[in-house]
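S.,

Sequence below, as promised.
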Amino acid sequence: MKNKQFKEWYNKKMLLGQAQHFYDINAFYRWKSSMQWGVYLEFFDSVGIHITIEYMKIGDYFKIKIQSKDEVIHYNSADEAGYYTTKERQEAQTEAVKKAFEILESN
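The prediction came back faster than expected:
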């Protein structure tokens, strides 16, 4: 997901003393989503948006929780109509990142 604030943070945080051919933002967007996940978590933590993905054994699904210091911003589970649920972790991670960027851009 491309976002100006993320790109600025990434260039400042990731390019300091690193092999730029590997850490360049364009290279980052080519990484597998599982490799991008940790970088996105660190970025969102830095702007006060915290993402949790939890596996629910009963029901066999993943739930997404995105919160700030003061409030839950977005939460999903199998029993809340209209919210996103998935049986695949990577799909849940992708959806969480999309939703977190929506929240960031709306503030």
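The longest helix spans residues 89-106.

Coffee later?
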